[in-house]
Amino acid sequence: MAAGDTGVSICADALILLGAEPISSFNDGTDESNSCDRLYPDTRDSTLVMYPWSFNTKKIQLARLLTAPNSVWKYAYQLPGDRLASPRAVYESANPGASVKKDWEIQGDQLLANLESVFIDYQYSAGEFAWPQYFVQLMKYMMAWHLAEPITEQQDKSLRWERKAVGDPSENGRGGFFRTATQIDAQGQPTRAIEDYTLIAVRN
After folding, report:
1. Is the pLDDT of residue 200 over 70?
2. What DSSP character marks residue 129?
3. How many CB atoms lie within 10 A of CB 22?
């Protein structure tokens, strides 16, 4: 893991790549820190869900709510609060080889289905302390791309760092260092066990 890396240090390194002054906090009061403060959270979260990274993907059983939904669905399940997006996959069983279910719906922070039990694969907001070095490096390139135009006012620099981060437009955001990072991540993905999220019946 990339011990010691923070959002501030990642943004500081991205600014150095652009030939700008690094920041020491998101509250420096400079144009650089203001831009980082505004752009970093969204860039971080969007990059975390671009791929099922091994370090921010969980498989858990959802808690079934006591109050049934007022709809065609029989059951409502509480989604985890740390999720970044909709589940990547929904299952009725934790057994290896369980089939992926397609018949479900997301409403707010609940998953509605006719399944007696629900297990999901989902991505959560893993902190920088949990990121491997290849993802930290990717985030530096991503921030350099997104900061280039507001900081340097040079569109060519923005295009240069976009290509460095995710490749040429023809690669649909799957080239550049992003591709390298996904290849490294795929080499070491462990088998994930089901985590006990909470009790099956909880109050809505």
Report:
1. no
2. G
3. 16
